[in-house]
Fold this protein.
Amino acid sequence: MFHIQNLKYKDVLRIKELDIPEGGLTCIIGESGSGKTTLLKMLNHLISPDSGDIEVMGRSVFKWNPVQLRRKIAMLSQSPVMFQGTVRDNLLIGLHFAEKPAAPEDKLAEMLKWLNLHISLDADSESLSGGEKQRVALARVLLTDPAVLLLDEPSSALDEETARAILGKLKDYGDSQKKTIIMVTHSSDLVRNFSENTIKIERGQFAEEAEKDAQQ
Ligand SMILES: Nc1ncnc2c1ncn2[C@@H]1O[C@H](COP(=O)(O)OP(=O)(O)OP(=O)(O)O)[C@@H](O)[C@H]1O
């Protein structure tokens, strides 16, 4: 699905070759500041490589129309963005930006329940806890039905049990709907339980390449 070659971005990332397969759950791990978020942002061209390339579904990120690319490959950032208004407003605005029809009330309510959110669609987004905001932002992305989900620490504000429950559901959804999920996480518990492909980043390098370089 993604083929990275000779990628360089400032002093932050340097990857000779890396493939991320279609389908399943890929986890990106590594120390704080190692370049995980930067790599994630490059996959839908929110950040442009200084040199090298990333092929997405066989086509260079430079050749994709950025809007089309980001509709196919949606990113949920580390700190969830909440818009002023109700939970309903926050869910519908994603569909509006994606130029998709508004979802009916029962679909919105079902999505909240699926994410273990026991809140009203009428609740003020400002009144939500951090973990609730994180899941509303996740629901907003899921409703737009992208082919690839880029999730930057999607469970950082959740307790371990809730994180495991949500990740289990996300993985089932990804498998049944043939989605590709790529997630940055610091949770070894989630990696152990759910990751099918784990990429370790070490000081801006793919860990296997960093090791080879160190041996030379
Ligand atoms: N535009 C930029 N210009 C220069 N340096 C940058 C830029 N963006 C990020 N960095 C630096 O690159 C490094 C990697 O940042 P990044 O956010 O990708 O790390 P991370 O692995 O996701 O960290 P964390 O786990 O703490 O979220 C950091 O040292 C950061 O300060």
Notes: The chain has a mean pLDDT of 96. The first helix runs from residue 36 to 43. Residues 10, 12, 30, 32-38 surround adenosine-5'-triphosphate (CB under 6 Å).
